[in-house]
Amino acid sequence: MATPTSGFTGRRQNRDTDLPPGQYLTGSFPVMSAGPTPRVSLADWTFRIAAGPGRTHLWNWPQLQALPQEDITTDIHCVTHWSKVGTTWRGVSLDTLFEDVGSDAEYSMVHSYGGYTTNVPLADLLDGRAWIVHEFDGEALPPAHGGPARLLVPHLYFWKSAKWVSGIHLMDQDSPGFWETNGYNMYGDPWREERYW
Ligand SMILES: Nc1nc2c(c(=O)[nH]1)N[C@H]1C(S)=C(S)[C@@H](COP(=O)(O)O)O[C@H]1N2
Ligand SMILES: [Mo]
């Protein structure tokens, strides 16, 4: 005989099976930072894409805000096994930011205020899969979660979503960032459980 389940439990069970392998659902929003939270004033904030010598594209805060803004609803997956579903963000698509950036580079290093780095193939930043976000859940992104602005690349483990993002440097060859140097996977696909080397 089938075990009776409430609609709520049923939905939760269905949702759990949508999670990548080895992940559990959390309702909270853990803060995972490798160091102290850097404080960046909006007056000083810049974001740059460095595409090679003499090919740096730079935005300040008003310029970022003047670009088309997108609302994103997505699941996020941390390598420490928590996932959070249906998170809502607002920001600028990297397709928009890369519009005028010509480059043959295949790889990128994402840099943060405070010195954190993480490598992401350029293709994974494009085609509607990555954003520079400055709002979470309808509010300005809290400093602990990466405010003023962070990268959001939700199809990869969340360590690739650099908080306090300051720029993206294009590279011809792949190179490990902070966690990748410390044993994390170079790519980090949660559906293939690419957690560590
Ligand atoms: N600059 C910076 N970005 C970072 C980190 C960090 O320590 N510094 N931690 C990464 C890791 S391991 C995760 S899981 C997420 C955590 O984001 P959260 O603190 O908003 O949950 O941020 C990622 N981005
Ligand atoms: Mo993480």
- Provide the helix percentage: 10-25%
| Total of helices | 5
Terminal-residue CA separation: 45 Å
- Sketch the major β-sheet: 6 strands, mixed
- Count all strands and give the number: 11
Estimate the global geometry from the Cα principal axes.
Answer: globular
> What are the secondary-structure elements, in order, as H or E?
HEEEHEEHEEHEEEEH
What is the structural class? alpha+beta
Roughly how many Å is the radius of gyration? 18 Å
Q: How many structural domains in the coordinates?
A: 1
CATH 4th-level superfamily: Oxidoreductase, molybdopterin-binding domain
Summarize model confidence as the mean pLDDT.
Answer: 93
> According to CATH, what is the topology?
Sulfite Oxidase, Chain A, domain 2
In terms of DSSP E residues, the strand content is 25-35%
The molecules bound to the chains, other than polymers, are:
the ligand Nc1nc2c(c(=O)[nH]1)N[C@H]1C(S)=C(S)[C@@H](COP(=O)(O)O)O[C@H]1N2, molybdenum atom
Highest-level CATH class: Alpha Beta
Q: Catalogue the unreliable spans.
A: 1-14
* CATH level-two architecture: Alpha-Beta Complex
